[in-house]
Design goal:
CATH class of the largest domain: Alpha Beta
Helix content: 25-40%
Structural class: alpha+beta
Distance between the termini: 52 Å
Strand content: 5-15%
Strand order of the largest sheet: 5-6-9-7-8
CATH architecture of the largest domain: 2-Layer Sandwich
CATH topology of the largest domain: Enolase-like, domain 1
CATH superfamily of the largest domain: CO dehydrogenase flavoprotein, C-terminal domain
């Protein structure tokens, strides 16, 4: 029995939120899942969930308008500016389901069972305990065995997957889950997803009134800037760490945003050695040094969890990144800088960490050493940036001379550009620290450099105005196309999805030299 069209699909269609329709189902699925968990979201929250959805046709205005009609703060003024279509009243005759209904079979709602897939080429195992995991890893060659959780790395390193003969799914191991708070910080399980961590951090920041430049604020920024919501729902934080560690020596490096922030906030990582069975809690910095000295060590590692310290009120921690796109794009360079001052603005501790300079998160040690012990002020910046420039260029040259990037296609970013990004990040961190800690403040013409703009923008909005040309009717008229409902319900097939019949022909549009001409036969 047909119970009606999904309300999200209906709203999207009547607000003309489809054009070619190829991306439409993704928007509907994302919004439906979100409303099922959050029945009364705000317009701001609705905007934020689409950071991983891309549309190349509509310009997003009509999509976001349709979605925001579900918001708890959707107002009469919003409704007045919604730009209704001419045929909307008739479209209300369409049977619409009374609620967000995601048909999920009851039998599939049970806990995930362990799965074993054994065939001649590749195998899949699902251990339920750490002991089972250790036993599997000890019995199988590490270079053809891959631990997976959300398996999101397939989208980044698809060419690596054919070589793996065994995939070990760790979703069913309870010891790898959980987030807990102590007096000094938070413990985070290795299999915590990005979305779970982000939700926890958002609530913690709100409850404890933590500022964006706290260590927790710096971590939250990088978690939020990683991928898009769809990927964050599936990806684990330990899987992200292992991607960076396993691509230090070969393959395109993976400049993890979160790993840089964990390093910069002086976080600990809890690891288990497969062969010895020994557990240890070590600094991120120490783990990097061990892997650099013995690259084969990554095959003997199981990450169990992390400890993220709260830090103290005398420090400023700032995470930053630049990428080609806002989301779903790895960093060109990212950074986490932490500066702790005493009452006289003397630098007690400093940490300056980058990714994108080396194939693993890297500390600007010379710059740190020069800055430590000095009274922080603007006069330090000229000398500090000279030291940092020299240090960054040396690190870039070192890996280049080792031939690390010889087989990797260039992304088009010069070393000079990366160096300037690194300098600008440190410059902003110093300005921000002075803005927060110096009683004398910062000159007005420089203070804007320390502002944190990401995430602090208002709601997007747009109103379309146009002149109707009746002679083109129904073209140029605000009609709802019937295909919109089929597109929103996922009932449209595209030509590249359909097999070409034996007598079929391929065609392409070409530009006419005589538009609107009359053909005389």
């Amino acid at each position: 029995m047909h119970e009606g069209i999904n309300p999200v699909a209906h709203r999207l269609a009547i607000n003309n939120g489809t054009q070619c329709g190829y991306c439409t189902v993704g928007f509907v699925m994302n919004m439906s899942a979100f409303l099922a968990e959050n029945p009364s979201p705000t317009k701001k929250e609705i905007e934020s969930i689409f950071d991983g959805n891309i549309c190349r046709c509509t310009g997003y205005r009509s999509i976001l308008t349709g979605m925001k009609t579900f918001a708890s703060d959707w107002s009469a003024e919003d409704e007045a500016q919604r730009m209704k279509c001419l045929t909307e009243e008739k479209c209300h005759q369409v049977l619409v389901h009374e609620s967000i209904n995601i048909p999920f079979p009851r039998a599939a709602r049970m806990a995930l069972p362990p799965i074993s897939i054994l065939n001649s080429t590749q195998k899949w195992l699902s251990p339920e305990t750490l002991d089972e995991l250790k036993d599997i890893l000890r019995k199988n060659p590490p270079d053809t065995t891959r631990i997976v959780f959300g398996n999101t790395s397939f989208g980044v390193y698809a060419e690596e997957f054919p070589k793996f003969k065994l995939f070990v799914d760790i979703k069913l191991i309870p010891e790898l889950y959980g987030i807990s708070k102590s007096e000094k910080g938070i413990e985070v399980g290795a299999s915590t997803t990005y979305s779970e961590l982000l939700t926890y951090l958002d609530l913690l920041i709100k409850k404890e009134k933590l500022v964006p430049t706290s260590r927790i604020g710096a971590i939250q920024y990088m978690v939020h800037r990683t991928a898009g919501m769809i990927v964050r729902n599936a990806a684990s934080i330990a899987g992200n760490t292992m991607l960076e560690l396993k691509h230090i020596q070969s393959g395109p490096p993976f400049p993890s945003d979160l790993f840089t922030a964990l390093f910069g906030t002086d976080s600990d990582i809890r690891i288990l050695k497969v062969k010895s069975g020994k557990e240890s809690l070590i600094k991120i910095s120490a783990l990097i040094q061990q892997v650099l000295k013995a690259p084969e060590m990554v095959h003997d590692l199981i990450i169990l969890g992390y400890f993220i310290p709260f830090g103290n009120a005398n420090e400023v921690t700032l995470s930053q990144k630049v990428a080609l796109r806002e989301v779903n794009s790895h960093s060109i360079v990212n950074n986490c800088t932490r500066i702790e001052l005493d009452q006289n603005l003397k630098v007690k501790e400093v940490s300056i960490v980058y990714a994108g300079i080396a194939p693993v998160a890297w500390k600007a040690s010379s710059s740190e050493q020069w800055l430590k012990g000095k009274t922080l002020d603007l006069d330090l910046l000229p000398k500090l940036t000279v030291i940092l420039r020299r240090e960054v260029q040396k690190e870039l040259n070192q890996w280049e001379n080792h031939g690390r990037y010889e087989s990797i296609p260039s992304e088009g970013f010069t070393d000079e550009y990366k160096t300037n990004l690194a300098i600008s990040f440190l410059y902003k961190a110093v300005i921000r620290t002075l803005l927060e800690k110096s009683t004398q403040g910062v000159p007005t013409d420089l203070s804007s450099a320390g502002k944190i703009n990401w995430g602090n923008w208002g709601l997007s909005n747009g109103i379309q105005s146009y002149q109707i040309q009746d002679f083109k009717k129904p073209i140029s008229q605000p009609y709802i196309k019937l295909m919109a409902f089929h597109q929103a319900m996922g009932q449209v097939h595209y030509t590249h999805e359909i097999s070409l019949p034996p007598v079929g022909k391929n065609a392409a549009f070409i530009q006419s030299k005589n538009p609107l001409a009359t053909i005389i036969l």
